[in-house]
Amino acid sequence: MMVPLAFFVVSLVGFSQAFLDDRCNLMTVSDLSKDSQVIQMPIPDGCITGEVEWHYPKGNLLLEARLPAANSVLCIEESWATMIGAVMEVTGGMSKPMALPTKDSPSCSSQPSAHPQVMLTAEDTQYYMTAFKYSIKMIR
Questions:
Q1: What is the pTM assigned to this prediction?
Q2: Which residues are the signal sequence here (predicted)?
């Protein structure tokens, strides 16, 4: 019975290392002592798709891209552990509600920009982690 457990642990460590080796996959941890925090998470240059792991989600996470093209939108897609309370598009300091992503329907910002930003709010229930995918789509 120890062999399957050891295999699981080794597989999990291998998966985590592969996740962290891809610079387009992002990870952050909330400061559990702060209720109304905003964690800024810039998407690295050159990344148009990736996954975000937000450990102990609390408060808000601001996902932001800086692109050379002015006609881009930022999309949030459901992943294997997506538990998000709200999603907001941030444009010029103003926020606008977006739909929560579902299995078959990503949620995308509506205002094309060279600096698309999406604010995600953690659910009230404290979870170990939430994960979601992101993609940047160029609009012609």
A1: 0.80
A2: 1-18
Burial of 7 (0-12, 13-18, 19+ CB in 10 A): exposed
Report the alpha-carbon distance of residue 3 to residue 42 in Å, rounded: 41
Domain assignment present for residue 45? The answer is yes
CATH number at residue 69: 2.60.120
Please list the helix, strand and coil fractions of the chain in percent, rounded to the nearest 5, in that order: 15, 45, 40
Give the model confidence (pLDDT) of 60-114 as tens digits. Answer: 999 999 876 678 999 999 998 899 999 999 988 889 999 999 888 999 999 888 8
What DSSP line would sit under 6-66, residue for residue?
HHHHHHHHHHHHHHHHSTTSEEEE--TT-SS-EEEEEPPTT-SEEEEEEES--SEEEEE--
What is the domain extent for residue 100? 26-138
Residue 11 falls within a domain, yes or no?
no
Inside any domain, residue 76: yes
Instruction: Taking residues 21-25, report their average pLDDT.
Output: 85
Percent of the chain with pLDDT over 70: 84
Assess if residue 103 is contained within a domain. yes
Q: What is the pLDDT of residue 69?
A: 65
